[in-house]
Amino acid sequence: ESLWSLIWVMNKFDELNINEPIPDDMIDYCPNLQNEEGPEKFTQNIQLRTVEEIYSMRDLYYRAMWCARNFNLNAHTHVNFNMSLIMERRRGLTWCLDNNSDWDNISQDT
Fold first, then answer.
1. Does residue 56 register a pLDDT over 80?
2. By CB neighbour count within 10 A (0-12 exposed, 13-18 middle, 19+ buried), where does 1 fall?
3. Which residues lie closer than 8 Å to 96 by C-beta, 6 or more apart?
4. What is the pTM of this model?
5. How far is CA 32 from CA 3, 8, 42, 49, in A?
């Protein structure tokens, strides 16, 4: 899920919907190491999204995480709020916005 949000930041696809899992074709965005493809597959045709776009999406995922946690605290579930999906995508978005962030220690508070 984190990688999917990073691919979104690279503007390789349009929508990063909260309630949609990674599509089956995500592999098409990634280098095929068995065919000895390198990082060029990631770096070709990158058009990074603006800071404002990334920040807005991270804010949306922050709010979605708050909702998911609220549902969990009240012993409820909701089909549109998958906590692990939301948490990992938010991690990727936060990492992109903070030059000093440590991938393994990105805050996930709400």
1. yes
2. middle
3. 6, 9, 54
4. 0.87
5. 15, 19, 11, 25
